[in-house]
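May I ask for an example protein's residues together with how it folds?

___
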Amino acid sequence: MVSEELLFILKQNNRPDFNELIRKKASYEYLYHLSFQRSNIIDWIELKKDMHVLLWNAECGALTGVLLEKAGSVTTVCETQAEAAVLRERYRDRKTLSVYQMDLFSTADSEMFDYIFLIGHVAKYSGLLADFYRLLKKDGSLIVADANRLGLKYFAGDQEEYLGGYFTGVENRYSVENADRCFSMQEYSGLLSDAGFAKQSRYYPYPDHKFMTDLYSDAWLPRSGELNDNRRNFERDRYLLFDERTVFDALLAEGVFPVFSNSFLIEAKKLEKAGKRSVLYVRYSNERRECFQIRTDIVQEDGVKWVYKRALLKEGREHVFKMETAFAALSSCYTTENLIFCRCSRTNEGVRFPFVRGTLLYDRIRRALDAKEDVLVWELVREFVRRVLGDGGSRSFEMTDGFREVFGDVTLDKHMDCPLFCDIDLIFSNLYVEDSTGVWNVIDYEWSFDFPIPKAFVIYRALYFSYYQMFQGTHVTFRQLMEAGGISQEMAGVFRVMEEHFQRYIGSGAFPVRSIRHLMGTKTMRLADTSDPEETARFFAGKLRFSIDREEIQDGCVVLSGWALGVSLRKEAFAAHIAIFGKGGVPIDAEITRTKRRDVLDAFLIRQQKEPAVGFDCVFLVPEDGIWQAVFSVGAKKKKYKRS
């Protein structure tokens, strides 16, 4: 059992490196019990040092540490003696922790706790909800979080949370009512109402409640295109029956996203009590170096919305406080009012920004793109370029030690125009356009630097991310975007290297959960990625073509994007098969996402009725020796691409 192995490890090592242990074991159980990201689900809740909290089914303590940091005293209840032993050993220095086994803990008392937490396995303990109601103080809260049996990922081919199997929860195929199972939002809410909880606030953890990065609410739902991190099948293989991001966008447009959220979190109270402060949205950025890990909250206080940023670790406090200095520097050199930087002020824990009203530039362009208003799309893109080039002051580029550390030792023209102080993160989702005045407000400038950085690089980053977030698969090509920004192919190549170095700079030593699945070996299976190779081989006689748009390293994985197709003599197109091989021809497991590329088919004058998905995004772990190649094939024809 994992709990017994953990106890042995904890006793043999005073302060074991949990991240290294997860990598070494490469098993879901170790990730689940040891990952610090597990605590995101409750870290955002405001606790005080005079509070007494209860964590039910504490397991091996993944959520216990954050409660010990925030609350005055913590009572935990474990299912087994082995879990209780792990918990005591893991937090042996904490005097404010009490550990019980379930059969030794009494629920007969009343009004003992300010908060009770039940995270996961809600159905299993649903019979105790009335006891939890009694155990809470009058103004206390019960926090429950669990998977949604109607979560979109279960329609898309993921297996049921507890019992496994495809469509088990969707079809409500549960044999025992009180067994480990999932409920829908209405079912969870009904259980809490039956237990006496009059006030319920609903939240939607994403991608799920176990490894949450974003927390949405009814007052702050996701934007179109935002839900794009959907492959989190660490424990089991899954199918990929459709593009979840696209379907999420459709559900958001129809106003039914809450029904199909992958997970729920509900704060249930005894009394209907109006609070002065409510949390609308939370985002965790903790797949970075420790000194850059932060949390962003959007809250409403006395009817006014504010945005807070705070460091998750003490090592990151300086990074967060630098935003106040960055605001002053940016405001002093951006004087033409092309770009207005949202005011930043320091708080005890971080910095605070006033909430800016308007429409994100990202949303404006996306709506115009969806409506096929091409003139407006290009007007907005060119207006962005004009504003970036026309503000921020001017100085020539020169290589500095700071630049080398962050962006690498690249060769750039010394005559390139640079702002006096540079925010490199002027991406479309960080720019709010006021609907009435047309003012462009910059809402986030976390990544600002005082050494010279070309304005063209700032433009490149915004266009680069916008392409992969909304333009890819449309008639707008990457080269067209670069041309609109005045960026040559040669310049784009240099900027790509800078961006990769920047990502390594902020992610050095980090522990990206999203890439751990590749180590664990769970598979994501598609029903039909390409044409049937045997059928194609019988009559295909044409040309095989491919193009690589992007090759970079992210979170220890290679990301390879582009298009690959075969064109027959009859002008029919076939999506190419893609395989990745390491040194000596050893196959490498790769996660391949297919996309339709009308722009590519138009370039080859393809007009067939069935449109093959010739675009691809290919993700795989970087081999230890760094050697790999991609092999594209259609029928008997093959072509190879080796790492650059």
The first strand starts at residue 52 and ends at 56. The radius of gyration is 26 Å.
